[in-house]
Predict the structure.
Amino acid sequence: MTELDAVLFANEAFYRAFADSDMNAMAGVWSEGAVVTCIHPGWGRLEGRDEVLESWRAILDNPDSPTIDCLSPIANMQGDMAYVLCYEAIEGNYLLATNIFVHEGRRWRLVHHQAGPTAEDPPVGNEDVGALIN
């Protein structure tokens, strides 16, 4: 597995934790050593692991939270930092998301997630395939 594959795997683990409403898995994808931040669509800036994880707990505990699918992820890496750009399909609409990871120990861990609306559709034909760019 290449490092870019590992970044995409970490990104997939984030969306799997979301899809499964698994708070333990969600906590496991976020960095424990770096400052973490998150901007949910329509929310203000969240900073710090406790605040970010509490926001995810509220989302995952909400039975009305929508299903979100990650589409067309593209990973880029620079040293011990990497980011994934992807589309999030949510109830027939799309968000564009940025997920930033740092290499922590032997794993890539999330330090920032931000998603917002886009009028653009994901590219056709690679909805579930991570295109790797270095």
